[in-house]
Amino acid sequence: MSAPTATRPAPAPPNPVAAPGPWRSELRRGLAPWAGAAVLLTLAVTMGTKAAEWQGDWARTHGLLRTTTMLLLGPLVAAAGCRQGGREHRRGTGDLLRQAVRGRRERALTALAPLVACVVAAQLLGTAGVYLATWPYSLGGGLTWGHGLLHVADAVLVAGLTAVGFVVGRVVTWRGTALVLALGCYLLLGVSAYVDTPSGRLAPAQEPGVSEGIPALWLAPVIAVWVGGLALAALVGHLARRRLLALVPLLAAALAGTVLVQTGDDAWRTDPRAQRLVCDDGTPRICVTERHRNLLAPAGEALSGLRERLAGAPGLPERFAEERRGHRVRRDSGEVPLPSFTPLGRTVVRGEVADEAVFTWETVAGLISPDCPDPSGGALEDVVWTYLAPAHRRNLSDPADALKRAERYRGAEGVAETRAALNKLDRLRALPETERAAWLGAYLAAARRCDSAAQPTL
């Protein structure tokens, strides 16, 4: 009798590789990361090309960011959502997926959620990056909680437009729908933003007429309910079994829209920092608003030469002051207006005075040419202007060029007048300091009275 043969156990089957989750698949091979990169790139390029117009001014940075989000990112994410929503139609997998274990609603949310997460994250990341770029050049002031909450409302807008585009992409099978939707969003949002009517207050990125406004804390939640309610109504109406549920977010959006239309600019109040002045200790003092307090030192440096040339002159104005909204500098007020710091990119670029010679020349304009009925400052105006702002290439600062221009435009008579003015400029420079200071004081007093006949001789 033979021994029984031992049987070997069958080898265990290899462990099956776990299928990647739907989020991981969307983030690795789907549209979501590309859409997020497009949002970040659009924000970076748009803001970067206009950096000189916003870097340093918190309010201008805030306003331009919100406008860019609405007018450029809004149509972009709507087109991306539409592209994602029409994926099943383009691939011809609609009938096959309808037989899958997952229901229609679960499949839709699985495709939409990663896309929304990527574009919102990119928008918030880009917003934070822009604020970091403006921080080193801050003019002063700063943002409030109301400003920050408005960026959260903008994130709701980005998410809502993505969802609306997704619904449109699932409903409309035409391949050109995404492009038409983007163009339609741009026109709709652009018109609503720039039309001065009550309906224009429904624009998601509404801003007040003045850049120094402070938003109320309730404004951002109302805007979020307005734009989010409309988007949620579209999504619920498309995916829910009971489509009447879409009436709930739709009614909430209608209520929020009514609040926006009726309140209007009352949701913004004037920033008191745009009215309060901070001053240095020079003579005359230089005063800027608290919103621009970090410009006090650059302005003082730019006008240091002017203050030296005015030293000792009697009757000088009390201060060179930045003009404030609703406050007009009059010639008898003891103030001389400083050149306007805003809009950025002209007088001020990245927290510094762009051209100190031009800044000084424009300040002298307010000093010796106040708001007189007769704008002509008399025969000595160019002489005094050139003495006080010699670095600016205008008037008599370049004698050869002044004579050439006089000959070209006014002939021999103009050349004679220019030579006489140059001789007076030389005499003014040659005067002893105390005598020159007294002469300048008399000249400025006559200029403030708009009495050119009372100007002292030279």
From TrEMBL:
Spans through the membrane: 31-52, 64-82, 108-133, 145-169, 176-195, 215-237, 244-261
Region feature Disordered, mapped onto this chain: 1-21
Compositional bias annotation for Pro residues: 10-19
Keywords attached to this entry: Membrane, Transmembrane, Transmembrane helix
Protein name: ABC transporter permease
